[in-house]
């Protein structure tokens, strides 16, 4: 039996919002998103905003992803397979979103995608090509900076 995660409030400060989530359960095995997943999707969605990040902001993302207890490989899957197909059009838009995505819309889109198991084969093929052209250039390098901060010893920057 899995040990229950103690309930705690984790604030996440983005450029446009303060998020507070009560964390009380472990990653979902159902189609319902856990609070940890909801927060992770919200934080990871910021990698698709039309802006440049400072290392301080990337370290901040990592510091708020770390206590969620979600393995890096799972975060990468969430980024590439759940968020990217929904948000990559923003990277192609001249007047893309640059402050924050509507959290309710974002989580509904992710939930719908997870509930249906993704998309049809044609959309899946387009997403695959988009990931290997746009995602690997625009999202993956930024994610790698977050990941480096995420996996390093949090006390080493003190």
Task: Outline the secondary-structure elements.
Layout: E1 8-13, E2 18-23, H1 35-45, H2 55-65, H3 72-92, H4 103-116, H5 121-151
Antiparallel strand pairs: 1-2
Helix pairs in contact: 1-3, 1-4, 2-5, 3-5
What's the quick description here?
The protein has helices at residues 35-45, 55-65, 72-92, 103-116, 121-151, and strands at residues 8-13, 18-23.
Describe the overall structure.
- The chain has one domain.
- It has 158 residues and is mostly helical.
- The protein has a two-stranded antiparallel sheet.
- It has helices at 35-45, 55-65, 72-92, 103-116, 121-151, and strands at 8-13, 18-23.
- A hairpin with a 4-residue loop joins β1 and β2 (18-23).
Q: What does the overall shape look like?
A: globular
Structural class, from secondary structure content? mainly alpha
Helices, by number, come to: 5
Number of strands: 2
Q: Rounded to an integer, what's the Rg over CA atoms?
A: 15 Å
- Report the end-to-end length measured between terminal Cα atoms: 36 Å
Please list the strands of the largest sheet in the order they lie side by side. Answer: 1-2
Q: Overall mean pLDDT score?
A: 78
Main sheet specs: 2 strands, antiparallel
Which parts are unreliable, with pLDDT below 50 for 5 consecutive residues or more?
A: 1-29
Give the H and E element order: EEHHHHH
Helix content: 55-70%
As for the number of domains, it is 1
The percent range for strand residues is: 5-15%
